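Sequence in, structure out.
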Amino acid sequence: MKNIFLSISAVSMMAITLFSCTKSPDKNAEQHTDHASATETQSAAQLENTNTAEEINNKSNEKTAVKDPVNNFSIDPLIKDYLILKNALVADNDQAVATAGKQLLATLEKVDMKTIPADKHKAYMEIAEDAKENAEHIGDNAGKIDHQREHMMSLSNDMADLIATFGTTQKLYQDYCPMFNDGKGAIWISEAKEIKNPYYGNKMLTCGSVKKEY
């Protein structure tokens, strides 16, 4: 009887051991599944955070891109055309003066107002309208160099106002002729310190003086 009892106990212990061994893999599998799920959740969260950060960065860049054009305005193209016109007057070449006047007018008309800071719109418009009128008169009056020079005087004042308002990246000089305009005097803008008078050309090429440097 005792041997039978011991045999039953031994069988029971083996059954329990086998049951435990059979269950262990399930627990490990569950733990592995839970770990995988947690890892996937964490990865998804990291991806979402990364995408959100990229979206914020892109929006920031878009805002910057919208603002950038406002800082792109420069009067350098206008200065370039004006200096070509000025040098044509120095050379007493009314045809080249007319061509330069038309080119300056075209450049003025191509200016994109969106690139100009809002607080300078009014000032630019007032100067530009006058400059366009002067450039148009100069362009339309080949063969009438005296008339071209009269408008050069007003145009030079316009360019001086543009430089004062927007600045320039180029070294420039404001020169002064005391005799032009019936002795009232007139200014012009030059890229060189040496005086070459556009109001009298070869008649009085060196008449004048440097009044200001930019």
